[in-house]
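Batch job 17 of 40 flagged for manual review because the log was empty.
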Amino acid sequence: MGKKSELRFVYDTITRLLKNSKSVYGSPRPKHHLTHPLSSRNAQILADLFDFEEARSAFFCRSFLFERARSKPHRLHRIQEPPEEAHQQSAKLHCLSGIGGVDDSCVYPFACSKVYDLRQYTDRTKWGPFMNDGSARVDWEKLEAILIVLSYNIQKRRLDTQYNIFANLWGMPFGGTWPNSYLAWPEGVERTPLQLRDPYDVSGTWIRIVCFVDYSHFFDYNFPLGADIADNVPRQPIEAREATRVILMRIHVTNIEPPGKEDGQELPVVHFSGISQAVDDSGDDDNANSGIRGTVRMTPEGEVRWTTISVFDGQDRWRSEGIQVGGRRSARGVMGNWFDNDYDPHGPCGPTGFWKISDHEVEGDDEVEDLLDKFMPKIDQHLANNVDSDDEFEVAFSFLDDIGILEVVTDFVN
């Protein structure tokens, strides 16, 4: 098999295994395995199978972004439209795995050059992680760049060591990247009739991370004096010197309506509203505390699209477009782009991600450690008391062996 056919083969196998993963509560495995918020044998097999750098690099790091990072200095790259299928497949695998095959610090400046490039934000891309053709198809290379930038800042801020809620999701291979991988906490939660009709399980508490750069630096990067860059040439890699905000979103369903003509038709559009509140040292930042509203809907190709709007003093200020990685009700949550609500062509813009941590709309102004630690013991205790069946493990491992993916991956390290 050639490299492209091998990538296609691995891509089809991984996406199929994750799509068909059975959501079960975890087992008492070591903490470096997938343990938040539940475990899947399929995901565990994939994590073990790609537990060495050569295999990850061979399949998860072959997008245009990584080609730029690995190339000789000063080589001129041109952006392909539409993107190469192999680039998109590799980027999607990277987003699903959540782990890198090379040093992220080497790729990070190139990811920043994509995330903070205003030319990526157009009406055709809906100012989000979509293809530049108006189709609303996901551009996985954009999501890959967002993943790298968010992960870099999570590690830089040491959020993954400060809060288990970050480490147990962003630090775990294939963590929560399959449909229905988020399950409710053990204790029951009463739901309204409207919430019972919500196929996305929107209502509850979500943790959010937002990254941005100083606007003067952002403007100089996008509008440099005397420099005219062709649309098909990427901007130079940058060390963005970003700031990061950690925000708690408490939202609930307000309305459910049939899908529009441009939406996927299999599920309705769900509207929600609530509040956003800073939970880190950004409490004095007015942009971190606001009202919030938005929608969740399916795209024509079957992905879950989230739109959020931040509201200050009754005025819409910021908007975001994102995709729920792993599908409907995935624990990994949503990654996407934030930008000016009025689509200001001068920006600013940047990456954001959010994921659900409770079916409750948490009340009160508790300190952040108390607020977040309130959830994690429930997860760890429930994992320790539940052992999942070996059935999924045996079926998945047999499937991987039968179709030859074990041999394909192993060949890259022999």
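Reviewer: the log was empty due to a logging misconfiguration, but the result itself is present. The chain has one domain: 3-382+389-411. Unflagging and moving on to job 18.
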